[in-house]
């Protein structure tokens, strides 16, 4: 049976106020190397390019990788100059979050962490699969992003100036040896606009909790 492939697109620049957030930066560390022979092959146009030239996250269970951004990403009413790639299937902006168990949004808003979650669940990349990311400020990937956004949101005359691609390629679930799940999140910026694409390949069945969303988790004030 042929697998199904899906994508989801969001506009993430709602609001007209930017706040430059400051937070301590962890030290940069050497880039881990991928496990060879695990690059997935997907139909053209489903996943953005990944593999060659990518940086790879560490092979530690529940780990996060800090990534500085060459230009700020506008996420609702805030702008961020860094993000964290979680091995458990999400991006975090305020700080690295090590939770392996997803929470239903916005139930844990008191933690105050802006998150984009293409597939937040208990993933173990210590033995199988690769988790990689790459940023683009020129070339064919920007052209692809520009074309996609103008197709999904006609009338914007959008032009991408920056693209971030994070890919979870054939990763397995924790204590579920042999499972393979592949998905991708793409952040796109240009001018005052920003967008998020979520691309899905083959997703293995699981009894683990899964959260798929892109909430703006905001702390309440009294």
TrEMBL record:
Gene Ontology process terms (BP): cell-matrix adhesion
Residue ranges constituting the NIDO domain according to the UniProt record: 118-222
PROSITE patterns per the UniProt record, alphabetical: NIDO
SMART domains noted in UniProt: NIDO
Alphabetical list of PANTHER family matching this protein: ALPHA-TECTORIN-RELATED, PROTEIN PRY2-RELATED
Protein name: NIDO domain-containing protein
Taxonomic placement: Eukaryota, Metazoa, Chordata, Craniata, Vertebrata
């Amino acid at each position: 049976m042929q697998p199904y492939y899906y994508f989801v697109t969001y506009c993430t620049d709602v609001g007209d106020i930017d706040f430059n957030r400051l937070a301590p930066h962890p030290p940069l560390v050497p880039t881990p190397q991928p496990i060879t022979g695990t690059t997935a092959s997907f139909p053209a146009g489903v996943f953005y390019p990944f593999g060659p030239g990518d940086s790879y996250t560490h092979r530690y269970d529940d780990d996060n990788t800090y990534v500085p951004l060459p230009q700020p990403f506008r996420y609702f009413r805030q702008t961020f100059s860094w993000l964290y790639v979680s091995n458990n299937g999400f991006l975090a902006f305020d700080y690295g979050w090590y939770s392996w168990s997803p929470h239903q949004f916005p139930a844990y808003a008191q933690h105050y962490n802006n998150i984009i979650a293409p597939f937040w669940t208990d993933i173990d990349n210590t033995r199988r699969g690769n988790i990689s990311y790459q940023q683009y400020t020129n070339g064919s990937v920007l052209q692809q992003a520009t074309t996609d956004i103008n197709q999904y949101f006609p009338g914007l005359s959008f032009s991408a100036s920056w693209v971030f691609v994070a890919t979870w390629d054939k990763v397995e679930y924790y204590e579920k040896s042999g499972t393979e799940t592949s998905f991708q999140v793409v952040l796109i910026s240009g001018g005052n606009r920003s967008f998020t694409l979520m691309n899905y390949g083959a997703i293995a069945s699981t009894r683990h909790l899964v959260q798929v969303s892109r909430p703006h988790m905001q702390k309440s004030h009294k």
